[in-house]
TrEMBL record:
PANTHER family noted in UniProt: ADENYLYLSULFATASE HINT3 (PTHR47670)
Phylogenetic placement of the source organism: Eukaryota, Viridiplantae, Streptophyta, Embryophyta, Tracheophyta
GO biological process: purine ribonucleotide metabolic process; sulfur compound metabolic process
GO terms of molecular function: adenylylsulfatase activity
Domain spans labelled HIT: 50-157
Protein name per the record: HIT domain-containing protein
Pfam families: HIT
Gene that this sequence comes from: Vigan.04G157400
UniProt organism field: Vigna angularis var. angularis
InterPro entries per the UniProt record, alphabetical: HINT, Histidine_triad_CS, Histidine_triad_HIT, HIT-like, HIT-like_sf
Active site: 144
Sequence motif: Histidine triad motif, positions: 142-146
Amino acid sequence: MSVQARRLAVFCAHLNPTRLPPDPPALFLSPSLCAPHSEAENRTLQDDCVFCNIIRGQLPSLKLYEDDTCLCILDTSPLSHGHSLIIPKSHFPSLDATPPSVVAAMFSKVPFISNAIMKATGCSSFNLLVNNGAAAGQVIYHTHVHIIPRKAYDCLWASESLLRRRVNLDDEKVSQLAARIQKQLLPSDMSQESKNENFCSCKS
């Protein structure tokens, strides 16, 4: 299957209502709970975004958790029993475009939500996954974090049964890579002298 076909299949799976129970329980999202409470909040959502429509209550989904910043729902195309998504209530296309305060709010709920999911599914482990960008497999461009419950020998990822091939870099290339990353982490308005001082302190 081509990359384009796979992305389309995953996207359609998020929209497919046939995977949902015929009689929605009380945990289903409703406009009264998830719809924006003001015009300003509404402007942060996108009309053509699946998750924004779920937040508005225009698409059904099974809700596990909700607060003022984010909500957690069951994935409609799960990789394992209990596969869930934490999504912010405002629209941000990718993790790197999401404000740190929102990222912090989302990830601070991971221990609480993941523990509940593992107890409910009988799993002892989970993967925490973010597909950020097309090359990383992102299909829906609204920031979301996957919680994927795991059991021993479930063979969920084919790569886990294979020997992983590490990237071999010599010490000089590793040092050059570290220097390039450190440079990108420095504020753009810092003087060159300050940058050099910070770089030297990082190496020591």
